[in-house]
Amino acid sequence: MRVLLVEDEAALASALAEHLELQGMAVDSFDKLRLADGALRTTEYDLVLLDLQLPDGDAIPWLKQQRQQQLTTPVIILTARDQISDRIAGLDAGADDYVIKPYDLDEVSARILAVTRRQSGLATNEVEYGNLSIDLQRRHLALNGERVELTAREWSILETLIKRPGHVISKEQIEDRLYAFGHEVESNTVEVYISRLRKKLGREQITTVRGLGYRLDTETA
Ligand code: CA
Predict the structure, then answer these.
(1) pLDDT per residue over 94-116, tens digit each?
(2) Distance 198 CA to ligand 1 centre (A)
């Protein structure tokens, strides 16, 4: 999952980014709305985490404008403002949820999972594909009823495939979800993770579509 974090308090931003990266998310962190603008134009994000007061402006009118320009990415507001009117203004401007500072890091990740799941059209956190049962919120995976352990990166790839079952996801789309700006990507990284996932889930679950990418097959024998 690729996350855009817009937060100007450096300590808060780095603690949050580090926490999310440990869970396999790729986080691009910016301290100004102007920089967030540029990132949104060039990169497809799964989620935006948005502080309300940035050095170059108030994020509420900024968000309203992004929504008017058809930004559909889910947005969670990070706010120290405890006034109900501010929260309502944020939701009115097009935020999907908000977290009040000081927040608990685990609460932020739980909100992220809930909001992105709703966005992807999955009705619940528990998904069944053939002989796989997946609990996205608790990150539990079972194959034929047996628990399978995945690393954070393996989860991140599986989540990317699950959110578009039956669709081909390109190697580049997967890389975008694994790495933030400035991270070196080894050319065969995606292949390595896909091969590890196949070892754990069974070869037939993930199909390689030559020249195009990978697909999670929803019909398995
Ligand atoms: Ca701020």
Answers:
(1) 999 999 999 999 999 999 999 99
(2) 43
